[in-house]
Specification:
The protein has 261 residues and is mainly α. The chain has one domain (59-256). The protein is built from ten helices and no strands.
Length: 261
Amino acid sequence: MRRWLFVILMALLALGATAVWAQGGKPESGWPSIEMPNISINGKNMTERSQVGTMLQVSFALTTLTLAPYILVMCTAFIRVTITMSFLRQALGTQQVPPTQVLMGLGLFITMYVMAPVGSKMNRYAIQPYLAGKIEQPQFITEFTTPLRNFMLAQTRDKDLQLFVNLGKMKDIKNRNDVPFYALCPAYVLSEIKTSFQIGFLLYIPFLVIDMIVSSVLMAMGMFMLSPMTISLPFKLLMFVMIDGWHLIITGLVKSFNIPP
């Protein structure tokens, strides 16, 4: 106990000596004075407009990076591609073949291929001129978002756009180009889901016909205990491979997008 009291007393004496040195004074024992650097940490009010604008821009950039995965999924061709691939796997009846990771990866690369012209326009008219100092930030934002907006408008139905315009009671909308982005984005997602379900229905028809034929044959032969899915799966795979199904589906998916000039 005495040892701890001695340690605490020595620590207090050391702190006191440090305080005296920091103030530039000399203790009675004649110790030399040590001047500590004048360091202050405080929060200053940013009165300049440029400083406030920079902080807002940084905050907006961090928020955009947080929402980047959702923007990638909801504002590109990813929706239609992935939903169509999921319908195809269910129609084949192969359960987890191809695996979900493979389908998502394939969907991502097809999305990159479809969105390449849009990205090229963003780089040509927005990123490169801004890096070269030819345009200011407001014009950069406009030029950067215009190609993506035109792509989304080209895929969105008028009925879906009108739905969100009416829900928002936007009376000053005269044409498609006047629709704000916060109304365009849900309308685009709704249109893509509708298109994906239509493609999925068309994919289901040939495989459904095979299931019906196999089921009818098994019932006619009296094999009620044998699952029709077990027999129809090899025939569906054979048909899909013989017609080069992956080639046809990927070709149809890519051509289904209306890429604006």
